Amino acid sequence: MRRLNVINRKHALKKVKELDAFPKVEGSYQEKTATGGGISIVVLILIVILVWSEFGYYTATELVYKYEVDSDHSSKLNINMDVTVAMRCSDVGADVLDMTGQSANTFGSLQHDDAYFELSPDQRGYFTSLQYLNDYLRTQYHAMHMFLWRSGFSGQTGTMPPREDKPTRPMDACRIHGTLTVNKVAGNLHVTVGKPIKLSSGRHAHFAGLVEQSDYNFSHRIMHFSYGSPTSGVVNPLDGEEKVTTANHHMFQYFIQVVPTEVDTALKQMSTYQYSVTESNRTIDHSSGSHGVPGIFFKYDVSFLKVKVREEHKPYWQFLVRLCGIIGGIFATSGILHTIIQFLIDVACCKYQWGKYSTPREVIGETVPVQSLATDYSPLPESAPTVNLLPPDQEAPT
Ligand SMILES: *[C@@H]1O[C@H](CO)[C@@H](O)[C@H](O)[C@H]1NC(C)=O
Ligand SMILES: *[C@@H]1O[C@H](CO)[C@@H](O)[C@H](O)[C@H]1NC(C)=O
């Protein structure tokens, strides 16, 4: 039984040996040439370059966008704003109304700080750079926001520097800033004349009785306006907006579409909101049929679609497949190339000899005419003697 096993194993081993696709070639059959060496070096460099670039390609990531219906309707939406209006704080009020009809003061409150509308030189410089940066981000948006999301850039560009001068005139503007937490439904954040008062009917109004018509000035500057978490790599299109009007009764409207966005990259996981905006403005003049309330209106709506951004790798098994393809392919191609080049060199140098590669005839142990051994080429008579060449170990007959 044991012997049978041994025989079987030997048999199997033999079968496996027959399958060997890499038969060994004797060292003496391998000839090394200078062209072969040169091509080998080129091939090696080529392989390194190609493998390196392929490696770069496969380690690079790409942002994949997916859209799905936003099923999260219970969470709240933050509105962050920092807007300066060219009216005294005692004359203006900001608050938000949404579709739920909830009382405005349940959303939190914004800070109203007295300020100067005109910026000091330092502040103007800062604001101009903010405008410039935001403009650049908006125009380069598609290229840039990939970078922003990948790099974990916070999008926060610092704060306005304090005034370096102290004007003697009274403050003429109001900086309204802070965060409101609202329901995730459409709403209207507005800045109008007078403080908001709640009416018993559940509606609300702004009490504007004591404000002079000539004090109305809704020129404004937006330092920051965003939704969601305040630190994010999202480009806020309203940052750096500045509107100056010479009409007292002017209405500015911003129509904002808020898009929930989830970003999941190697450096950053965040759930935030992006928005797009269209704007319109007009002077209110009841006599010419342009009715409305002077003020600044941010009318927003929340998209029911959510954008999901993921950073994804290309699969590594593909990299392995391509690696094998590159290395094997280059070796095979360079082998053919080598043969062709060798042939061309031989032809060019007139060195090509047919039969160069045929092995010299074995002369030992064979009877050859003496003629072929003689040094002079004079023809020998027919009866020329022959010698019998023997292998060196055999004694020659005497
Ligand atoms: C109002 O909008 C028009 C374009 O629609 C624009 O040219 C103009 O500058 C705006 N007015 C103000 C005061 O921003
Ligand atoms: C509003 O204020 C700005 C800046 O101080 C000024 O340029 C503009 O003329 C004012 N508009 C009105 C209607 O007073």
UniProtKB/TrEMBL annotation:
Segments forming domain Endoplasmic reticulum vesicle transporter C-terminal = 171-337
* One biological process term in Gene Ontology: endoplasmic reticulum to Golgi vesicle-mediated transport
Report TM segments. 33-52
GO CC list? COPII-coated ER to Golgi transport vesicle; endoplasmic reticulum; endoplasmic reticulum-Golgi intermediate compartment membrane
Q: Name one Pfam family in it.
A: ERGIC_N
Q: How does it sit in the membrane?
A: Multi-pass membrane protein
Residue ranges of the Endoplasmic reticulum vesicle transporter N-terminal domain? Answer: 16-103
The record's keywords, sorted A to Z, are: Membrane, Transmembrane, Transmembrane helix
Keyword check for Transmembrane helix: yes
InterPro entries, A to Z: Erv (IPR045888), Erv_C (IPR012936), Erv_N (IPR039542)
The question of whether Membrane is a record keyword is answered with yes
What residue spans carry the region label Disordered? 377-398
Q: Where does this polypeptide localize?
A: Endoplasmic reticulum-Golgi intermediate compartment membrane
This protein's major location comes to: endoplasmic reticulum
Q: Which family does it belong to?
A: Belongs to the ERGIC family.
- Name the record gives this protein: Endoplasmic reticulum-Golgi intermediate compartment protein 2
